[in-house]
Amino acid sequence: MNETSSSDGGAPPRRGGRPAEGQPVIDRAFALLSVFDSDHRALSLAELAQRSGIPRSSALRLARSLIHVGALERLDDGRFVVGLRLLETASLAPRGHGLRSVAMPFMEDLFHVTRQHVLLAVRDQQEALLVERLSALDASPVHYRIGGRLPLTSTGVGLVLLAFAPVAFQDHAIATYTPGQGHDGIRTPADLRRVLAEVRRGDHVFGRQSHPWQLSTVAAPVRNGDEVVAALSVVAPSTGFADAGYGPAVRATARAISRQLEVDGRRAMPAGGGCTHR
Q: Fewest CB atoms within 10 A around its CB: which of 22, 67, 96, 139?
């Protein structure tokens, strides 16, 4: 599955061109913040302006305001980095930290059993957002990070989240599907529709990818009541995957997390948290 081939940030933010006339300051501020990623953790003013499409003078004013509130920090060499205030604020997100705090003990048990990559993701618009991962030092090579984005149509967690998304959203994803690296069994929109139906029937998905590495995954939905709010998966080498017992372990762990969310009375995940569309 393409947990491995998605870049750390999924689709890159729009870059180039001037912001729309009258664009709200908050939109420009988020445009500026969105240009940081795992390959660009420290940026000069010129890079901020070029990557965001915001004129240099405006980018400088915005950057200074963001520094003032702690959303950006400036290094001794003049480059800008994301500020700790954003981490403090992000830690309050119920679909991130709240879900992770409930899921982590169960994920740790799954990790100790599998000694592979264990992923937890939620859907954010057109992509899966990785909110937690546990990985053994000697696990297979992959490219993702907490906070990174993964495609819905070619990853285990993505297919689970897509399978339980609103029908209109699924139909659009199927109609606009184009083949890429990932699930070896999905080559056409009809393949994607079939796999999504299988996910709903079996409450999990198995997938295999041949490139860039021979890897397989199994993923299952995490629910809060009747709503699918996240997806849990294990990613491991394809050799021996079928006999390793990952499937039952992932499904059992996902059910355990779901039960705990329900026991907590939805305090970790507000109702509607898994189906926000903008």
A: 22
